[in-house]
Every structure is written in C-alpha cells, then in structure tokens.
Amino acid sequence: MSDCLKRFASSLVVSCQPVPEGPLDHPDQVVGFALAALASGGRGLRIEGIANLRAVRAATDAPIIGLIKRDLDTSPVRITPFLEDVAALAEAGADIIAFDATNRVRPVAVADLCKAVHALGKLAMADISTIEEAKAAVALGVDVVGTTMSGYTGGPEPSDPDFQLLAAAVRLGRPVIAEGRMRVPEQAAEAIRLGAHGVVVGSAITRPEHITRWFADAIGAARAVSARPALAFDLGGTKTLVALVDGDRIVETTERTTDRRLGPDGWCDAIADMIAPWQGRFGAVGGAVTGVVHAGRWSALNPGTLPVSTGYPLADALASRLGQPVTLHNDAQAAAWGEYRFGAGAGRDLLFVTVSTGIGGGAVIGGRLLTGRGGVAGSVGLTSGASADGAFGPLETLASGRFLAEAASAAGHAVDAPAVFAAAARGERWATVLVDRSVDVVARLFENLQLLFDPDIMVVGGGVGLADGYRERLEARLAHLPPHLKPEIRAAALGKNAGVIGAADLARRTS
Q: pTM value?
C-alpha cells in the first residue's frame, strides 16, 4: 500500500465541494473548509476543480483526491471524463485522481483513464455504482475503489449509504473508500466496521445549504404533523379509550368496554372502527396498552388483565388498519410521561403508579421516560409482597381493582371495585377492611420506591388510586415517616386521560 493511502487508513476524508455558484464557491472558501477539516480530525481531502485544487495544495500537504466535474451533452459521465482532465489534476497537485468508472456511455474508456493516471505517477480511484463495475475496475488495476456513484446512475436517489455494495467491494481486496449519503457519524463508523479504508463525507460537513435544508425540511414536517391533533388510544383490561389530543387538551373522545373475548385482532378492529369518523383529522398516532411493549410488539405481563399472546405485532397490525405508523408504549409509562409533561409532574422527576384493574407504573428521571431493556421498566404490579392478613404474591393480586372485586365476592358481596368504595363511604365495615388492605400494600410499595429512586414526587392514578379518599389514606399510612423518606404524593392531574395524552405527546416526538 502506498504511503499516501496509509496516511488516511481507517479515517475521515472530507469532500470540500461547495454548491456550484453558491456563496461559498471560491478557492479561498474551499481552502478554509479544508484546513478546518484537517484541524478537526480529517486525514484526507476530496477537492473538485483545478483552481480549488491548486489553492488547497498550496495550503497543505495532506492527501488529496482530485477530480473535475463536467456536464456533457453526449454522456451522463461527469467526474473526470477526459484524459486532459487527468493531466490537469496531476499538474495541480492531486495525489489520487478520481474518475467515473460506471458502465455507461462515456467519452473515454475506463482503461484509458486508469493508464493515464498511472503514467503520471498518481493513484487511480474508480468511482463505481455496482459490484460488477468494481470488479472490472480492479481487473484494470485501479488503486482505490469508491462507492461514490451508487444511487446516482438512474432512478430515485436512496436516502442511506449503500453498505451492501461497500461490504461486497471490500471483499475484492483493494482499498475501498465509502462515499455517498454519509450524513451522521454513526454511518461513517459503520463503514469503517465493514472494512472501508476511508470514509468520504461531503455535504454533511461542507455544504451549509444542504445541511440547512435538511433541518428546515425536518422542522417543516414536524410543524405539519403538530398542526393537527394527534390520535391516541388507551387499551386496557376494562375499557378502550380513543381520543384526538392537542397538547394537553382532549379535542374529542370515545370510549368502549374492552371485550376480552375478541383477542388482539379483534381489539385492533375495534380501535379502527372507533376512529373511523376521524380519518383525515389527525397527524401522529400513539397508543398505550396494558402489558409489555417492545419494538412494536405486545406481550402480556399478567394474562389475567388481558390475554395477549407473546410478541403480538400490535404496531404493524394497527398501522395496516390506520394507514400510518403507530408509536406504542405501556399504558402506565405513557401516563407517567403525560403527568410529567402536562400534569402533576410539572417537569420534575417522578414515579407514577396506577392502581386500576391491575397495577402498573412508570418513571421519568432526568427528563427521560424509562422503558428498560425489554420494555418492562415500572412494572411494579408484578413485584411480590404481602398484605396485612398474610397473603403473598404479586402486588396487583393484593391491591388492585380486580383484587377488590374478588375479595368482595369471597366475602359474599358480588360487586365491582367502585361499589366497594361506595360501600366503604357508607361505613360498611367489610368494604372498609378491603380498601385498607389495598392501601396498606400500595403504601409499602410507595415507601420502597421512594427509597430506591428518591423522586421529587410520586403520582397515583387509576380508577382505584383516584377513588375518593384513597390518596388521603395512603398519606395517613405513611405519615410516620421522617420528611426525607416520606413520599410527596399527588393525584394524577390528567385523570383517566393521562395515558392518551402521554401517548400522543410521545408519538409527536417520534413522527
């Protein structure tokens, strides 16, 4: 390998090519870009045009890939199409001369360009678009292969680098320079991992016009999405709530009882049916569901809440029905984010615990929603504990709305959780005992969570958690703790809408 190539092995090469006839299209500006790039970690340069090349060569001895671009009436080839271009680039100080080596109608054969470069003592770089072109160029004796032309010889321009072509070209045994649509550092790093000798980055560094347009387009797209309400749904074990959400404001909502017999496909059909009257009125789509959500797939944490098969492709199933992508989160995690953004959290570190049909939770620490490696962060209802009467098991079997209904039935009262609270409000002892059992379990959970995370506030939500007197009972149960260990408990300000408001906001952020 030549000393020139060794100087930028496994390194960054910056293409200093201003937008033609733009405000930076002048040799002085190109020199400035080149020196700034070298000072910041670039090891080589790719320079277009004789005037620019001469100016940069006078300013640095760094390796330079030189080229000339021409717009021809008789050929689509633009990069160094003529033999006289090769001679001019060599005279101006290029170390490596790049030329289009694609299999298209051309004024000069690739073989002749390669010979001319070598005759002048320079290295030949073949800019190719396919692996067949790369093989042909290697057979002709080129010193370097560049993936420069991939995606630029016909058809729509791709948005991402051609890593497949890069990997295939590396296997040919010649140094390969990855070039084309390298816009973020992670892409450049991936090219090196795939065996690239160097990575050329151009527009993302030296064309402010392009960079500005990328940002402006992204902002414009976000503005277009946020201009319309988001659609959000909350699919739980008792109800399915669907809403149009504008920030923290519910524009319109509809609700149904969740029919447990339908199964995931049926629940998706039900959601699509509920939102049918709103088609065309919403931008981003977000969802909150009971259980585990990971990479768009849904699994049950407690099949007793909703029987979901492991890994059901909920995001895809809903996207196919709604005609656009769907962002999914666990319902308690979505509610935690809603309370953090617009509710009781007010931008402070918080833990959210929902006591409803089941028990769930979510945490927002340092402005970030914690979801965990597999999506189960905050699943406090499945942590184990004991109740005051000695029962042991997952907390949601000891304190949730389902627990209250089952315990009431066992005591001879076939009623649901709201009826238990109504009976407790009337002073019926059996109901008061059951509510106190739930409070005792949840209070110890809050005490332990405060010790583990020490959040600014603890937010309680859910049909049970927001029932009359429940939070006050929790506070009374924890009143004996010293101030630095006592949770500051707040009722969820968004009520039953916390999940859809949080899901809507999270969907906007990812759309």
A: 0.59
